[in-house]
User: What shape does this take?
Amino acid sequence: MNLLEAESVSKTYGSGETQVQALKNVSFCVSKGEFVAVIGESGSGKSTLLNMLGALDVPTSGKVYIDGRDVFAMKERELTIFRRRNIGFIFQAFNLIPELTVEQNMMFPVLLDYQKPDRGYLEELLRELNLTKRRKHLPGELSGGQQQRVAIGRALLTRPALILADEPTGNLDSQNSREVIGMLKRASRTYEQTIIMITHNGSIAQCADRILRVSDGVLKDYGSVRDIREAVARQNEKQAAGMPVGATAVGETGGRYEKGGR
Ligand SMILES: Nc1ncnc2c1ncn2[C@@H]1O[C@H](COP(=O)(O)OP(=O)(O)OP(=O)(O)O)[C@@H](O)[C@H]1O
Ligand SMILES: [Mg+2]
Assistant: This one.
């Protein structure tokens, strides 16, 4: 089942000479519980894509469906509630509330929705994010990496169907990066949460199920990480056997733009 579908999404910023075509006819589907990494050079359109998927900004043309709902057909208020209940955002700028402590920041979206926070899960997240000792601290008293982990905890606590993450490990050392990626992976496996994560780090991208690449506003599906690994292994075997290596470069292992299951 597809949790997310993007249909010919285009985004143009500005007009005249300063016009930038940040996204060009981007179409793809993501299944429920799938963990997708988005890679691409700086300025290629990755954050723009995430903003459109999370309905934080309106595309110039095209549609986005989340759980079968046409998000840009919703009224403002309906969309705000839908977003709060279904999407968790982890951004480069963490958007923490300076007056609230670590745990209050994490619980904030739940309280905003008049729901009761899952205390057990909160404790688990604080522990896994290595924040238990900092739970009563304010964001201003935390390091960049700690603030980033609070933002991750806040996105996970509501167990949203879709998590959109823009470089969630950008400020973390390798140990904390591994833990955060492990948590996202568990969220996708255990709770069938769908994750779309931008990263500049190739080895982190390989932890996902599938890799998409944005290049100058155009999206290319590199296919499943497992297929990429198998293709690379086959090439290495051929090379080791002294056979000529075919043209099966990464990225030619099969795109999956079609609708339908995994
Ligand atoms: N609000 C805006 N107004 C005008 N142009 C914009 C705006 N936001 C982004 N752009 C332009 O759109 C293009 C894509 O930007 P985007 O932020 O999506 O890139 P990115 O792939 O996320 O880059 P990075 O890896 O550096 O974060 C860039 O050329 C950028 O200058
Ligand atoms: Mg960006």
Q: What stands out?
A: The first strand starts at residue 2 and ends at 13. Confidence is low (pLDDT under 50) at residues 248-262. Helices lie at 46-53, 76-86, 102-112, 119-128, 144-157, 174-190, 202-205, 225-240.
